[in-house]
Amino acid sequence: MTDSAIRLKMSHISKSFGGVEALRGVDFTLRRGEIHALVGENGAGKSTLMKIIAGVHAGFEGEMLLDGKPVHFHSARDALKHGIGMVHQELSVVPQLTVAENVYLGVQPITRLGAVDWAAMNKGAREQLQKLGLDLDPRMILGDLPIGIQQLVELSRVLFSGASIIILDEPTSALSPPEIERLFRSLRSLRDQGNSIIFISHFLEDVLAIADQITIFRNGRKVVAAPVTPEIDKAWIIQRMIGKGHEELESSYLGDITLTSPKGARTVMEAQGLSKAGAFRDVSLTVKGGEILGIYGFMGCGQIELARALFGKLRCDAGLLKLDGAPHKLSNTARAAKAGIAYVPESRRSMLFHHEPIYKNTSIAILERLSRLWLKPDAERKIARQHIESLSIKTPGTEALLGNLSGGNQQKVGVAKWLTYLPKVLILSEPTRGMDVGAKEDVVKIVRNLRDQGVGIIIFSTEPETVLSLADRIMVMRKGTVSQEFADETISKDRLLAAA
Amino acid sequence: MTSTSEARPARQSVGDWFRNQLSNIAPFLTLLFLVAFFSFASSSFMSFGNLQNILQQVSITAIIAVGLTFVILTAEIDLSVASVANATGIVVAFFTLQDASVNIANIPLAGGFAIILAIATCVALGGITAIGVTRIGIPSFIMTLAMLQICDGISAMLVRGQIAYAVPSLVGELGSGSIFGIPWLIIVAALALLIGHVVLTYTRFGRYVYMVGGNREAAEYSGVNVKLIIAAVLMISAFCSGLAGMLGVAYFGSAQQNEFGTYLLDAIAAVVVGGTSLFGGRGGIGNTIIGLFVLGVLNNGLDHINIDSFLKILIRGLILLAALIINIYAERLRVSRSASH
Q1: B337 confidence band (pLDDT: 50, 70, 90)
Q2: Are residues A378 and A258 in the same domain?
Q3: Domain limits for position A428
Q4: Superkingdom, according to UniProt (chain B) (predicted)?
Q5: What are the DSSP calls for B115-183, one per residue?
Q6: Is residue B339 one of the residues assigned to a domain?
Q7: So what's the pLDDT on residue A438?
Q8: Would you call A442 an interface residue with chain B, using a CB distance cutoff of 8 Å?
Q9: Is A394's CB within 8 Å of B206's CB?
Q10: Which of A337, A373, A406 is opposite residue B7, by nearest beta carbon?
Q11: How far is it, in rounded angstroms, from Cα A240 to Cα A309?
């Protein structure tokens, strides 16, 4: 059975990264003149499949047919030659160049003399951007413009490149509602000209507004592919994304979870109206001693920046922070640490010293309290031994180089370095990302134990399970602002996802 | 509490240890090779007198290199060391009573004040560099290049092409005198190296220097005041340079412009040839001492063998290049090994 409308047909696609299966026997069909949405949780395999189509991942199992002919791309350039263009989630614009230069990146028009044809480039860029409803001077430096406009410029590069299959990974994450509307208008007109568009998004309203067809992924498998009809709504999608009522999933997190805030505890940290241009706006929060506040949001919703700002790593443009009721200046990390704020960032590489022994890693944050002038290496080793024992860190000893530990054990060292003297507030950014189940459970135990000792804890995560399994109170961030707060009520994963 | 995450036992084989230590071993082997070569090629090289020569010849470089080791360990660089030395040397002479024949409009002060003013000058110069790098955010490479020019300007303005000779008696004694036959200069250099080593190895500040160089972001995320540490090492470097400048003027017997010209490259070469990583976090005064000896033996040894003196300059460059290449490979071997974990 052949269907001339089928542009792309993928069958039994599998792909693994170092033993972890990202895709398991996935089928996917894309027709001419359709906008096809791809949804699924982080790590469900959407981006991996798209990167295979766009030639970014060359090695995979399975068959890929383009217009009925088997193809196998070895590079993004290869895919582009066949008319497949992709806009990745991470912006790949050059902020130092002008708008026009970015629109024509790599394909600058040249005059007969071989010089860059600036006039043609500026004129062409202006016309392209006007189709997206952007009327701006193409000679402006792109980095001076808001992120939303930068994203539109990047989109325009692929949209008008002549590609007939266009893949957009989270194209609306930085756009305002009117910008989204203009983008959708362009997408519809491209579709009506016979192009095919694949639209990956976490924002289900956007998906329902634009898509003709939807494919849902979960755990590297395709769950369902269906045309978008009026019967399909957010709840329908979320149910299939997280597999409620289905087999083999993390059952414990699927049920309802009751949040209870500790009664009578005093507030240890209070933030009012924190804002940082391009990251978050007007965020207020409080954390009590002995409470875990979970802050959930999709990648890029500003939560990483907020976490850094609370530790003084990133300067806020506006806002006030109080610790134990007294105002605290967010000027640098040394001041924050001294005031009793501890911070475990999302990347192990940026919090640990891989070429140094464990005992130097566990002592660095507390050296000031350990010694005035002279180092006390024996005391440092003793502290390291205590942490190794109490947190079950698997290592031959205090002298082992940190880089020789496994990821989960490194993460424990990253937390351990703040635990010798209990902090007032512990901020954890993505504390369980990339960990296996056992290591995750250990981290959960450590964090709960600290909560019980009266530490105020803030957890920033893009993984709903992490937030649900740990938090006593949950705030949801969406595009830089707090969209909803859940306290003293029953919550489930679908409600959490719906709020983000 | 059981963890299913696999623990990787640290296998410390002999090969691993050797690769780890290669950046320390390579400079030492280079030194042994050079000593053996010159002992073989020249009958006058291997003698006690010549050893003292070598020590004296590297002493000024050594004092500068102590400060520079601090800076390079934090993965910054100080290109102004020789110029700060020159300016400080000229300042101390400027405030000292000169012979009537010296045609400089100087301001003689009592000996102690000249020294205090000179030290204040070099510390202030280091302070300006520190502000430029940490407060304003100018990369140290550029900031200290500007400071190099500023110091050369200060030197030029003060001596206006003339030469001063007199320095305070304390400076004169330390720079050109000796005790029990041992030049004070060697003793001062040895003390500077010793203090530098103790500070880097046994104090909290020294630990911070290594950690900031090893992973600046992690240091910041651990609550270390990274800017303060970088400001401090830049000021230490300026102070060491200033000290070397004052003693150098006494050692050379004159204060004039451009007399520290070769010391910038010598000091950087000593630190880096010794195996201290330009990427920060690894190395130390021990490495710098080896580097100083490599440089000293090379400079001195080439004078003992009978080759074209113009060719010597080229040979010196080539040997330094070879030493640096060995170090980079030793470092790369180590990094690639630990990155695979």
Answers
A1: low
A2: yes
A3: 254-499
A4: Bacteria
A5: HHHHHHHHHHHHHHHHIIIIII---HHHHHHHHHHHHHHHHHHHHTT--B----HHHHHHHH-EETTEE
A6: no
A7: 65
A8: yes
A9: no
A10: A406
A11: 36
A127 or B103, greater pLDDT: A127
For the cut 90, the answer to whether the pLDDT of residue B159 exceeds it is no
Given an 8 Å threshold on Cβ–Cβ distance, is A350 in contact with B215?
yes
Q: What is the pLDDT of residues A95-148, one digit of tens each?
A: 889 999 888 887 788 888 888 888 888 888 888 888 777 788 888 888 888 777
* C-alpha to C-alpha distances, B53 to A15, A132, B59, B189, B300, nearest whole angstrom: 68, 76, 10, 14, 8
A203 and A90 in one domain? yes
Please state the domain count of chain A.
2
pLDDT at position A434, please?
A: 63
Mean pLDDT, residues B225-254: 95
Q: Which of A42, A43, A6 is nearest to A27 (CA)?
A: A6
The length of chain A is: 500
User: CATH no. for residue B52?
Assistant: 1.10.3470
**Residues of A in Cβ contact (< 8 Å) with B206:** 375
For residue A391, what are the contacts with CB-CB under 8 A and spacing of at least 6?
A: A412, A415, A416, A442, A446
Q: Which one, of B232, B240, B278, lies nearest residue B133 by Cα? A: B232
Record: contact A333-B220, CB cut-off 8 A: yes
Beta bridge partners of A30: A8
Q: Give the gap in angstroms from C-alpha B283 to the nearest C-alpha of chain A.
A: 13
Can you count the helices (H) and strands (E) in chain A? Answer: 18, 22
Would B50 be classed as within a structural domain? yes
What are residue A37's phi and psi, to 5 degrees?
Answer: -90, 145
Within a domain: A188: yes
The pLDDT confidence band at residue B59, using thresholds 50, 70 and 90, is very high
ipTM for the complex?
A: 0.81
Given A249, A282, A309, the domain boundary residue is A249
Judge if A233 and A278 occupy the same domain.
no
In a domain, B255, yes or no: yes
The residue ranges of chain A whose pLDDT is under 50 are 1, 245-253
pLDDT score for B55: 93
Segment B238-247 mean pLDDT: 96
- Residue in A313, A314, A349, A351 to test binding to B, most B beta-carbons within 10 Å: A351
Number of domains chain B is built from:
1
pLDDT of residue B172: 85
Residue that terminates a domain, selected from A229, A249, A269: A249
* Rounded-to-integer distance, Cα A97 and Cα B31, Å: 50
Q: Compare all CA atoms of chain A with the CA of B211 and give the residue at the minimum distance.
A: A353
Q: What is the CA radius of gyration of chain B?
A: 22
Q: What percent of chain B has pLDDT over 70?
A: 91
Are A290 and A400 in the same domain? yes
Apex B6 CA angle, B2 and B12, nearest 5: 125
CA distance A190 to chain B (A): 45
Tell me the nearest-neighbour CA distance from A124 into chain B, angstroms: 38
Q: What is the pLDDT of residue A157?
A: 84
A238 and A387 fall within a common domain: no
Do B204 and A367 count as a contact with CB atoms less than 8 A apart?
yes
pLDDT value of position B336: 59
CATH classification at residue A278: 3.40.50.300
A202 found inside a domain? yes
Residue A430's pLDDT is 85
Q: How confident is the model at residue B197 (pLDDT cuts 50, 70, 90)?
A: very high
Residue A1 lies in a domain: no
Same-domain check for residues A301 and A195: no
The whole domain housing B264 covers: 28-34+42-334
In a domain, residue A481? The reply is: yes
Q: Do B4 and A350 touch (CB under 8 A)?
A: no
Hey, are the CB atoms on B9 and A373 less than 8 Å from each other?
no
| A389 shares a domain with A355 | yes
Residue B259 lies in a domain: yes
Contact B3 A403 (CB under 8 A): no
